[in-house]
């Protein structure tokens, strides 16, 4: 294990604590403000990208200019997603995550105070109630919701099957879906080198859901998964090509 890797992990540990304290203070000053999420995401992401020296290129105009409220879906590779995706979280966007996150010191409290939605996946009744709350949030509070539809980290082994929750929410609220795709960085990241690797992030055109019903969910999920798969494959190819070019040049 290189000195650089150990130093990075030490700095990341310190940064995680400092960002947690600042985020909790922000949450206490303006509890449950839906824009706290975006500010806290930047608080974690900007210094982390500097410490990790990951070169992130984002082409996310459809996300920045999102159509009012929407459901954002993204592929979920690892815990580093917090730092990698933190710079592209748009205004007034909260996240859905599992309830156990609440117990992570500082981060859990910050996450809750930032107005994010914590779901008890083991309890169907509570999960359904949380979903109704999110539908209300989308319809009446000018707030978008960010979901990782795979429901767990795929560890860079390709997209896992999507769960229906995000699509139910979008259709129930009648809001579009915006897909965010991140190139496969988990298996290529080299944190023991000065430059740790390249990452591409792309958002796709919003998909309207007006007029769709629960019967349309399987086809919608399939279409989203196929589009995201194609986009991730194309970005991985781009990065591999650029790396080969650099090495041969």
From TrEMBL:
CDD domains: LPLAT_AGPAT-like
Catalytic activity: a 1-acyl-sn-glycero-3-phosphate + an acyl-CoA = a 1,2-diacyl-sn-glycero-3-phosphate + CoA
Segments forming domain Phospholipid/glycerol acyltransferase: 70-185
Database matches in SUPFAM superfamilies: Glycerol-3-phosphate (1)-acyltransferase
EC code: 2.3.1.51
Enzyme class: transferase
InterPro entries referenced in this protein's UniProt entry, alphabetically: AGP_acyltrans, Plipid/glycerol_acylTrfase
Keywords: Acyltransferase, Lipid biosynthesis, Lipid metabolism, Phospholipid biosynthesis, Phospholipid metabolism, Transferase
Pfam name, any one: Acyltransferase
Keyword Lipid metabolism on entry: yes
Pathway: Lipid metabolism; Phospholipid metabolism; CDP-diacylglycerol biosynthesis; CDP-diacylglycerol from sn-glycerol 3-phosphate: step 2/3
GO molecular function: acyltransferase activity
Domain commentary: The HXXXXD motif is essential for acyltransferase activity and may constitute the binding site for the phosphate moiety of the glycerol-3-phosphate.
Family: Belongs to the 1-acyl-sn-glycerol-3-phosphate acyltransferase family.
Protein name, as recorded: 1-acyl-sn-glycerol-3-phosphate acyltransferase
Source organism of the structure: Pseudomonas trivialis
């Amino acid at each position: 294990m290189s000195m650089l890797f150990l130093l990075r992990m030490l700095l990341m540990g310190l940064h995680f604590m400092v960002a947690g304290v600042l985020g909790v203070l922000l949450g206490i000053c303006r509890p449950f403000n839906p824009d706290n999420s975006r500010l806290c995401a930047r608080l974690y992401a900007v210094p982390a990208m500097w410490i990790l020296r990951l070169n992130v290129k984002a082409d996310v105009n459809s996300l920045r200019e999102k159509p009012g409220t929407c459901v954002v879906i993204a592929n979920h590779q690892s815990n580093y997603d917090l730092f990698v995706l933190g710079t592209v979280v748009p205004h007034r966007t909260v996240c859905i995550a599992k309830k156990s996150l609440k117990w992570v010191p500082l981060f859990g409290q910050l996450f809750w105070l930032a107005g994010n939605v914590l779901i008890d996946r083991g309890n169907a009744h509570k999960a359904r109630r949380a979903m109704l709350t999110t539908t209300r949030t989308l319809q009446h509070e000018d707030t978008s919701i960010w979901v990782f539809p795979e429901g767990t980290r795929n560890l860079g082994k390709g997209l896992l099957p999507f769960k229906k929750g995000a699509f139910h929410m979008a259709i129930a609220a009648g809001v579009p879906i915006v897909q965010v795709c991140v190139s496969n960085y988990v298996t290529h990241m080299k944190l023991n080198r000065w430059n740790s690797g390249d990452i591409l992030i792309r958002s796709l055109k919003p998909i309207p859901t007006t007029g769709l019903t629960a019967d349309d969910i399987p086809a919608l999920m399939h279409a989203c998964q196929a589009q995201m798969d194609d986009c991730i494959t194309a970005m991985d190819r781009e990065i591999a090509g650029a790396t080969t070019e650099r090495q041969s040049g």
